[in-house]
Model the fold of this input.
Amino acid sequence: MKETYTVKLEGKDWKDCLKGAYGKKKKDVKLDGFRKGNVPFDIYVKHFGLESLFMDAVDDAIETLYARLLEDPKTVVPAATPGVDIKNIDKDHIEVVFTLVSSPEVKLGKYKKLGVKKEKIEVDKAEIDHEIGHLKEQFVELKTCEDKTKIKKGMVAVIDFEGFVNGESFKGGKGEDYNLEIGSNTFIPGFEDALVGLKKGDKKDVEVTFPENYHADNLAGKPAVFKVEVKEVKERVLPELNKEFFEDLNVAGVTNEEELRNYIKEQIEAEKSRKLEDEFLFKCLDKVVENSKFEIPTEMIDDEVNRMTNEFRERLQYQGLNFEDYLKFSKTSIDDFKAQLAPEANKRVGYRLVMDAVVNKENIEVTEEELNAELDKAAEQYKMTRDEFVKEMGSLDLFKQDMIVKKAMKAITE
Done:
């Protein structure tokens, strides 16, 4: 449901917004007879006109008007970012039209005993062997081979190399004493295979072609020649499962292979349990959504898409990557990227709506005793006092809401 509200900010309140805009602008303003940043308000207005402050004052005005609108008990509770339209603006007032979208009515269908099967947890020997292999890789040693040893896949070649395109070297195409594991697919396709059979002291011109989607546009799709010299050949030696290995591993209660296998099995079971619980919950939620009737406003989906986009952007930044560079590399526009997120966003919003409906149907609440017990439990887990944990968490309401959601999940999945 959409509701529109036309509101005004006038008189002193609007003048305060204009002066606030002037305060931000004046630091960069310089007029003859005044030091930069010290032009009086009246002189500024006379020279530049009050209209020059309007757009900068709008943000503060909208924030003030929206806050007042939400304080009115007659205003619908917004479920998405409001639509904002500046109707009128002059020296005396600003008139804004807000369009608010409320959550749709949910006709909750069957939400218990949904007939969803929970998968059993199974761990086989191959999975345990795979994890042991990973652990061994952490303690692998590189042993220098005899001079006549020929390079095989899995070995490490220590090489000097320099690349040329059309007879000219290029940036990033040169390296010395580089450790290259043959078969790791670290270099351009074909490069590592060309080194197989060489030995220490051998030199070779390796001819390859850069992939069409190579990250450097000046090299993409172009043939290149790398002059390579093998400086050394090394063999990767995996450790034995002996006393020294378990001491280096330093896992409490693990001193032999049997204990290691039991430990790994428990870890895999715990991880699978978490994954299967999540899958089970989402299958149940899918059923609840399927059994219920509601229509999701486009604005709620757009909000969720924007939230997901920002989350993805932050994950890239954490990895030292740039979102705009990602779009360029993947040859995707921002609109196409968001369109790809829309189905998942629609599903997420649907989940939230039916969960809220279950909370209301079941009259789910969290008592003070339950809240305090969970706070104590969480604080103990993070080795903090309760007050320290609440301060670190920032919002007690969010913690409480999370508890309510968990209760709703239990009602659905029991």
